[in-house]
Amino acid sequence: MKMTESGWYRVMNAPEPSGSGAFFSERNDAVKGYYALITVLGCVPYAFLALWGDAQRGTLGLYALFLAGMAALLLLCRGKDAFLAMLGADTLSCLTSCLCVLLFQREGWSGHFQPMTPLSMVFSLFLLALLLQLVAWRAIGRKRR
User: Fold this and answer.
1) Is residue 123 classed exposed, middle or buried when 0-12, 13-18 and 19+ CB atoms within 10 A define those classes?
2) Angle between the 118-144 and 80-104 helix axes, to the nearest 10 degrees?
3) Which of 24, 94, 100, 145 is 20 to 30 A off residue 134, Cα-Cα?
4) pTM of the entire structure?
């Protein structure tokens, strides 16, 4: 069976049904679940976990989790509406990371990330991740043409 013949592909690319029952169609339910998954992945404070691993454990291993989370968001997002979902998930993850830094920051963290503060590190990580996602999005878009 080809990848294009899978059930998920057929549901996501099915023509939009018409009529009064269109809101409860199989495609709309699948799309809602798809965007719910992207939103849940966006709620994970990836940058905070990376900073926590660096400051508390002295390991850079959790930066790999940050990169994997951002790559998962990129790979899940397909189509024009999904681009906005990806940006929304990135913003949501940045906000949850900022909140976690404010709530769980330890005393030694400020000295560990000199000359930056932990919050500026969160924003720097997300700007870098956003830049990488936008470059990858453009590359994937050109490859599909």
Assistant:
1) middle
2) 160
3) 100
4) 0.70
